[in-house]
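Field: sequence (string)
Field: structure_tokens (string)

Example rows 1 and 2, in order.
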Amino acid sequence: MLDTEVLIAGAGPTGLTLAIELARRSIDFRLIETATGPFAGSRGKGIQPRTLEIFDDLGVIRKMLNSGMPYPPLRVHLGPFSLRLSPMGGQRQATESTPYPNLWLVPQNHTEAILRERLAELGGKVELGTAFGSLSQDDGGVRVRLATGESLTTKYLIGCDGGHSAVRKAVGLSLNGKSLSEQVLLVGDVEIEELDHTVWHVWPLARGGPVALCPLPEQFLFQLTVPRASAEGIEKVLEKVSGWRAVRVRWSSTYRPASRMVDRYRIGRVFLAGDAAHVHPPTGGQGLNTGVQDAYNLGWKLAHVLRGGPEALLDTYQEERLPVAAAVLGLSSRLYKTRSLKRGDATNQLALHYRMSSLSSGAPMGRLHPGDRMPNVRLADGANLFDQMRGIYATEVVTQKGVRILVRPDGYVSSIGMQPTKEYAGEITRRVKCLADGLGESSQ
């Protein structure tokens, strides 16, 4: 007898996104978190354009935008001189096909708070102070013992519990890869008064290693990244490099930049997502975003299978997401090694696709291929396609020439020019007509 259909271990951005996806589909789940309180720091602060589109679909985009700000310009300090550079990723104008074209700076604690609030609106909650303990599984389900002593049986267990994932270790998987530096870095949120809050300060030639001071969407609060000195804290390093004093350190943590991932996303009825499956260096802002998109890919598939869909659909989670994680890890590792301050189209995750997936079929239409992210378009009635796609179902788009495009619940094209099928795309409840046939000309 099942106690819940899905157990999610870890209530960071990945676990919260997955819980929201299940909650809005009325799937029974529990979301447990080892920590006794919400995360307090700004750590994963860069929200990529594709993730902003996901947050739009989840119903939290206004709050995300209001809680953050555009990435600021860079001020690079070189001894007595300084250079002002354009923001990482640049600043682009929104277009019909890409309504959120730029990186958005939202401290991770704000992101998690907004997602928790959305989950509560849907009737879900986070069970704080509840750690995963151990598991055993068979064809009928997964038996889990929690650190509280409670035992339960679930249909599926999803490990979203970070780089030190207890779920990953329990199924015998390892993070394979390497450290990118022997140096331990320290990151913290610091309060500094009377400092220009409109630029991202960088000291690339500081003794001991580069130092960066990123403004956050709170007055006089910055995220500081420094090489960890054995006898020096954040305050001393900051004052020595910049001449400014930290009024208060609100949060700090250490890490060693690494590029690691698992070679499998699934062991039986146990799945991994987010940092439990792949650990990124901070360059490029890929870690949090890749985890959110893992959850966005897995959520609708779990729901479809639990409603009676084919179990084989869950195999496509690893098929689609593992190559993406490998490509993203390669990108962020290259950015770290080159110390590049520029971010191009490769980092915004709009071009990531599932063209080689077994769920993608049919012929390309111009630049739009099966497996691509579906761009926003104007419909025949004047509405936006993204507005019509918002929700939990697949969408069938028909061009003026009658070409069918089937869009999956996660916003990727399942097929072009073929008869729609419900087998892998979810229940089709919408059929909308495009205003024009130039769709394939603006797929990015």
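Row 2 begins here:
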Amino acid sequence: MIITLNDATTHVIAEELSKMREERGEAATDRVLTLLISCSEDELEAALRAANEASREHPCRVIALVPRNPDNKRAHLDAQIRCGADSGAGEVIVLLPSGELTKHLDTLAIPLMVSDTPAVAWWPGTPPPDPSRDAIGAMASSRITDASQSPHPLRAFDALRCHANANDVDLAWTRLTLWRGELASILDQPPHLPVLHCRVCGQKNDLSTLLMAAWLRYELRVPVSISWNDSGRGLTSVALTRANGDILLTREANETSKGNETARVPILHDQARLLLPAEKPQMMSLPCRSTADCLMEELAQLYPDDLYASVIHSDFDFSGEGKKENAYER
């Protein structure tokens, strides 16, 4: 159900919320957090779908702030309240301010936030250069960005790195959780030989690929090289070189040959191949993570990610313009 309120005030919205809770027999006290979404109208519906899915694991009040017509001489506020099938496990409030109100998003959100619960800010599109100083980000204990969705991902991420702290995280990092877990598990198994060199392959200037290379270099203290491809989406393979050969974890399927021609290598989206020295290839589950999956993980943590902060503030070259071999050697 969607209730539309035109030319509203936050007091009217709060009264309508209270009325709806009474009619449905619900209480706001079961909300574990307030999720503040700052986005454009074009980004709104996709962001709400991800937030609604994540809220089924973490019941929350979602407040989406969608500024419109900042140059409008008349300041007014339109709003929507979504509940039931349109809101996941909670309620969704969409605020659509115009004119002067677009400069005061924090004052619009504060009266509608769930009291005595954490606030999390999320920018599903282009993030502000310094989220902690943004009007929405300043109210939040955790801040989530997704620089990959901005028109210039590397430029946006570079600005974030200059200001980020352990309470900030980008979903390009969260998309690597399964990859990092698998690689750590593999290196925990014998033989416990040191890694001498790493090779990472992914889509051109993909932030997750760069963050994987940065993480490997930070944790293993070895040279890392990056190669780019046009066939995959995001990170496609990681190779770790040891004295007894290479460990290769890849989403690339086997090459198929016909006559003198080799077919283009397809990319697997839900599985990966693991190749270990002197062993047969193994298939394992390694799905591409959706935005909802990543958002769900970050809402479950809500504590400082010191490792992420250390990786992005290391001396790794995030420009994506380094040489293919040993580009990031110490």
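free_text_note (row 2): Residues 10-24 form the longest helix (15 residues).
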